[in-house]
Amino acid sequence: MALDVRPGPRLADRTTLRLGGHALAEVVLTSPEDAAGLAETLAGLGGTPLTLGGGSNLLIRDGQLPLVVVSPRLTGEPETLRQRFGAAVRVRVGAGVKLQRLVAWLATQGLAGLAGLVGVPGTVGGAVAGNAGSYGCDMGSVLARVLVWTPGRGLVWLGREDFTAGYRHFSLKATGESFLVLAAEIDCQVDEPIDIRRTMIELVRRKRATQPIKAASAGCVFKNPAGTSAGKLLDEAGFRGRRLGNMAFSDLHANFLVNLGGGCAAEAFELIETAREAVRRRSGHELELEVRVAP
Predict the structure, then answer these.
(1) Active site residues
(2) CA distance linking residue 216 with residue 17, whole number of Å
(3) Band of the pLDDT at 262, cuts 50, 70, 90?
(4) d(CA 101, CA 1)
(5) What is the b/e burial string over 191-226, where b = at least 16 CB atoms within 10 angstroms of the residue's CB?
(6) Nearest alpha carbon to residue 192 among 118, 115, 107
(7) Which residue among 13, 19, 211, 293 is buried most deeply as judged by most CB within 10 Å?
(8) Quick one: pLDDT band at residue 2, thresholds 50, 70, 90?
């Protein structure tokens, strides 16, 4: 069966930072089996594949771009598996499910482990691929198995012995090859739903007070260096609220880049490089991007 190939979208309409030019095409997957024809389809379209879920954590350049968007729209209700996995309850979920839908569903089921990700945008697939984390919680800490497609192995379930999940990092062991996340299985502990909800409410309150959660933002721009935070270093370098054109570092949290309306990628890149240089000169820290840049 032929894959669903669509005209290339304007990526500013599909990313939380509201930046990005036009892609060459978009390939939509609605089941894991669709991935069987992905390699051939991508080869025929040319360009560089860009997996796009919720569009968060992305900084995409302007103009006509040599990108082919791959959209794994594997949604549906999370599923509790009936097998026993020690004291844990294992849940299977598609890569296209919104992360916040999963977090809320787990709370209603009395399953703990991802409450710290409340308010984090994007999809489950993106959360796995970037090992999303917040308030001491990260996707890798509960991840048991992941269904991926790779150009060399096709469709395969991989266990914890087959992948590495670190600080904002996920990769396949041994081969280190490129991959597309299609589903995940996570192990959660049983807890009282009311206690999980209380934790989530408190974390949302803290986020609203300290992060621009309603702004057009890609989330944190830089990873935290060992022993300190990127936000603190940017604050000390005078970048809280710093603006260039219609792009700015948030006045609530200096490590959040926001689009004030009508911003462009050129402004974003210039502001980021100016900030990195200022932090380098002031503290000696070399800030590493957390946000993904494409192409």
Answers:
(1) 168, 220, 290
(2) 5
(3) very high
(4) 30
(5) beeeebeebbeebeeebeeebbbebbbbbbbbbbbe
(6) 107
(7) 19
(8) confident
* Separation CA 14–CA 80 (nearest Å): 31
pLDDT for 41: 95
Residue 200's identity, in one-letter code, is: M
Reading the block at residue 278, the tokens are 């200022």
Six token digits for residue 169 = 């990092």
To the nearest whole percent, how much of the chain has pLDDT over 70? 99
Angle at 272 between CA 270 and CA 276, to 5 degrees: 115
Closest CA to 95 of 128, 62, 133: 128
Average pLDDT score over residue span 169-188? 91
Taking phi over 0 as left and psi of -120 to 50 as alpha, with beta for the rest, 84 belongs to beta
Please, are residues 146 and 181 in contact by the beta-carbon 8 Å criterion? yes
* Dist CA 155 CA 182 (whole Å): 9
